[in-house]
């Protein structure tokens, strides 16, 4: 009977490491390529950031020069000898802006909002210092529910903004309706 004794004369036993080494080399090449790509993207971003900072600095410098020019011009306008001209200019500009309000468009926008049982008694548009239009209205109704519904619709409409009820007046012999004095912001779409 013969005994088989396995004998390996190599100092290191045989292992199948070639696929692992090939895969490791492929991954190393891929990671090196990604590293080169990321470095190039970083360099490009740094260059773009520098260009953006340069553009921002140029715009800020231009803004400073324009602000200085505006300050000089305002100083000239604020001189006592020019006060009358400035006041007249502001008055005429406000008048022109107020004349630019389209009454037809205003009433068309209000017609879409107002319920049938609410009457518009008076309306007065005003232009504030920020060139926004505010409407001062007096509306009347037999009860308060239609007016509340109208105010809710005014606040939801894109042409109108926040509403504010200043006061209300009860019915009288001359005016049988409940009257509410209301103000609302209005942005007219041209």
Largest sheet: 4 strands, antiparallel
Mean pLDDT score, rounded?
85
Q: How much of the sequence is in beta strands? A: 15-25%
Q: Which fold name fills CATH's third level, the topology of the domain at 101-186?
A: Alpha-Beta Plaits
- How many DSSP H or I helices? 4
- Please provide the ordered H/E string of secondary-structure elements: HHHEEHEE
Q: Based on the structure given, which CATH architecture of the domain at 101-186 is correct? A: 2-Layer Sandwich
Strand order of the largest sheet: 1-2-4-3
Please give the alpha-carbon distance between the first and last residues.
Answer: 111 Å
**Rg, Cα atoms, Å:** 39 Å
The CATH first-level class of the domain at 101-186 comes to Alpha Beta
Considering DSSP H and I runs of 4 or more, what fraction of the residues is helical? 40-55%
Query: What is the SS-derived class?
Result: alpha+beta
- Tally of extended strands? 4
> How would you sum up the global shape?
elongated
Could you explain how this protein is built, in words?
- It is a single chain.
- With 190 residues, this protein is of the alpha+beta class.
- It has a domain at 101-186: Alpha-Beta Plaits, CATH 3.30.70.
- It has helices at residues 18-77, 83-99, 103-113, 144-156; strands at 119-127, 133-141, 160-169, 178-186.
- Strands 1-2-4-3 form a four-stranded antiparallel β-sheet.
- The longest helix has 60 residues, at 18-77.
- It is elongated and about 135 Å long.
- The termini are far apart.
- The model has no long low-confidence stretch (mean pLDDT 85).
């Amino acid at each position: 009977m013969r005994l088989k004794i396995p004998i390996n004369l190599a100092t290191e036993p045989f292992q199948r490491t070639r696929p692992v080494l090939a895969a490791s080399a492929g991954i190393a090449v891929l990671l090196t390529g990604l590293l080169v790509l990321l470095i190039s993207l970083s360099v490009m971003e740094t260059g773009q950031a520098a260009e953006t900072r340069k553009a921002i600095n140029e715009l800020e410098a231009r803004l400073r020069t324009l602000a200085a020019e505006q300050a000089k011009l305002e100083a000239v306008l604020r001189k006592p000898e020019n006060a009358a001209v400035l006041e007249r200019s502001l008055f005429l500009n406000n008048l022109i802006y107020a004349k630019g309000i389209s009454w037809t468009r205003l009433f068309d926008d209000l017609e879409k909002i107002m319920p049938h049982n609410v009457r518009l008694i008076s309306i007065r548009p005003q232009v504030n210092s920020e060139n926004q239009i505010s409407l001062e209205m007096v509306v009347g109704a037999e009860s308060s529910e239609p007016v509340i519904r109208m105010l809710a619709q005014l606040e939801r409409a894109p042409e109108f903004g926040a509403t504010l009820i200043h006061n209300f007046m009860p019915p009288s012999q001359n005016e049988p309706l409940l009257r509410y004095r209301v103000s609302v912001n209005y942005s007219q779409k041209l």
